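user: can you give me the structure for this one chain? tokens are fine.
assistant: on it. calling the predictor now.
[tool input]
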Amino acid sequence: MRIFITGDLHGEEPVITSIPARCPQLGKGDVLLVAGDFGIPWWQPGSDRSKNDTKLLRLLSDYEFTTCFIDGNHENFDLLQTFPYEERWGGRVEKIAPHIYHLCRGELFTLGGHSIFTFGGATSVDKASRTEHVSWWSEENASSAEKAHGIDVLEHANWHVDYVITHTAPEQFFSVYQELAFNKLLLACPTQAYLTELHNRLTYKKWYFGHYHGDKNSNSLQCRLLFDDIVELGE
């Protein structure tokens, strides 16, 4: 099993159909991890537009590899919450479709022999122009229970994991994303503040995140921002 990581998909068909060409190494038994803003499902079941969700999920399900994603800020949380939870790879997931799984917040998974801590969510910079329960959800930021669970999981792991995958990033990585930070605005983001606290205690090999729509690697900070790039775990 090989593990690959990419950034936001936003439920965009051209991005999804281009995955095999952008990463021909992805094969049977491998896993693609999406660092938030998966964007599927988005439309209410039964609506004409929901057919697009069905189409995109079928496209991903038909690939030889398994797709896993953490949630971002642009997700339909009303729909995500309808899927049943199950235990897989040592942590809690939601099965969205065959070979497609939502990796829940604050979980520690073992994939390909690596321990991977996941934590989704972020604050939307465009929420003022969106409608609650239609195109924006308050669940985009972590709840107190989710934060507490993440801390419990990390304490059990003695605050050491191999890799971290989040949607937004701790403030310690500002130099990586500052040129892409939506006109350089620093929002008051509760999830980012939480991750900043975790970073102060956590040891890891590499931290991957999306959200800022760019691709940049920092060896000195042991982190990587992803959007278009698809990289193998560890790169």
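assistant: here you go. The first strand starts at residue 3 and ends at 6. The helical segments are 13-17, 19-22, 50-62, 77-80, 144-156, 174-177, 190-199.
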